[in-house]
């Protein structure tokens, strides 16, 4: 069945690759992000009803405008994120920088989910995917070299569990994906390509109705938080 999928941070990197992969599966794509020209290019490449939406997930008014423009989506991929504190330490990282990471990586995804989850629940079907990180996994060891980023991803994982519990047995699956280190502006030297990461994200975004929910996924397998 053809679904409508909204991807945040869609102008480049993993978001762009996710849009392209979902379009390749026949789904209608909404490419959303602050880079207006970038999301327009992505939407144009995805064709067949694809839409570009300028969106700042840290701005409630921007999210409301996005919702009013697109109304209903079946799949929400919360991909937008920042890593601005590399090389700092937990004892010295500026708390203003911590707040910025939480605003984007955690509250932005939560804000988007609050906007679109109620409609999914009302229709009885939906998929929400949080693009998280091993840097925020206790099982992996939190990454002290980017403490604000790590804490924001821990919090994002918590939001995933809470939303999944609310949506359980109501047709909506909510999961987090750890794509690993991916060759983007965050990790320009990483071996894995955005297309590699998109494979796992798209798998989580198109899970069957009996698929897992409220879990952390890596390479299509459940991993510990």
From TrEMBL:
PANTHER family: 5-KETO-D-GLUCONATE 5-REDUCTASE, ALCOHOL DEHYDROGENASE, PUTATIVE (AFU_ORTHOLOGUE AFUA_3G03445)-RELATED. SMART domains: PKS_KR. It holds the Pfam family adh_short. It comes from the Bacteria. SUPFAM superfamilies: NAD(P)-binding Rossmann-fold domains (SSF51735). Belongs to the short-chain dehydrogenases/reductases (SDR) family. Residues 3-185 form the Ketoreductase domain. InterPro entries: KR_dom (IPR057326), NAD(P)-bd_dom_sf (IPR036291), SDR_fam (IPR002347). GO terms for molecular function: oxidoreductase activity. This is SDR family NAD(P)-dependent oxidoreductase.
């Amino acid at each position: 069945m053809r679904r409508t999928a909204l991807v945040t941070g869609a102008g480049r990197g993993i978001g762009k690759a996710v849009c392209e992969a979902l379009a390749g599966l026949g789904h209608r794509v909404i490419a959303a992000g602050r880079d207006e020209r970038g999301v327009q290019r992505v939407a144009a490449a995805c064709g067949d009803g694809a839409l570009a939406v300028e969106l700042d997930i840290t701005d409630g008014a921007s999210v409301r405008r996005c919702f009013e423009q697109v109304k209903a989506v079946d799949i929400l991929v919360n991909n937008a994120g920042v890593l601005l504190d590399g090389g700092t330490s937990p004892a010295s990282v500026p708390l203003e920088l911590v707040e910025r990471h939480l605003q984007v990586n955690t509250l932005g995804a939560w804000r988007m989910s609050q906007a679109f989850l109620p409609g999914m629940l009302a229709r009885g079907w939906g998929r929400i995917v949080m693009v998280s990180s091993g840097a925020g996994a206790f099982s992996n060891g939190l990454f002290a070299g980017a403490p604000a980023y790590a804490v924001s991803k821990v919090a994002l994982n918590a939001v995933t569990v809470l939303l999944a519990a609310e949506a359980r047995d109501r047709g909506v699956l909510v999961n987090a994906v750890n794509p690993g280190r991916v060759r983007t502006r965050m990790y320009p030297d990483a071996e894995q390509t955005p297309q590699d990461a998109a494979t796992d994200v798209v798998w989580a975004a198109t899970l069957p109705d009996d698929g897992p929910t409220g879990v952390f996924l890596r390479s299509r397998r459940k991993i510990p938080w």
